[in-house]
Amino acid sequence: MPIITGPEPLTSDTVIRPAEPGEEDTMLDLLAEAAAWLAGRGIQQWPRRFPTESVRRPIEAGEALLITRNDKPIATCVVAEADPVFWGINPESAYYLGRLAVAREAAGIGRLIVDWVGERAAEAGKSFIRLATASDNPTLRGFYERAGFEHVADPPAAKWPTSLYQKKAKQDGRS
Question: What is the tally of structural domains in the chain?
């Protein structure tokens, strides 16, 4: 079940909403901008451009989100109810956050997006928010650690250096 089915305010001028069919290039452009920014810092975490199919399925499943400010796309992410590639089949209920990419003009909004996912996880009765990130990107790992995520594991069989993180979903105002 998708995390949301329609637009919701994130801030007074920012909206988070499901990406729609036909918005593949919008998502891919945001991901490519983030990949180029990372590459400019010597971090080869993502391809220069993801294939269209990599965003088409999450869009069709209602898992792909776009964040807009004054109707201009400024960020994207995917929120799913499973991530068997990295987390296997896990009996604990969680939202799995992936491919969080923020346009440079909106730097800083990533934490608001992560917090929003946590709030929705709690509302949906999920136990955790989980993610897989590059284990060789200490800045990104630090971002998630400052957001309250705990390092769980570095799966040795992953195709690229990967670290798994999770954070308890806030329940009744507690995390």
Answer: 1
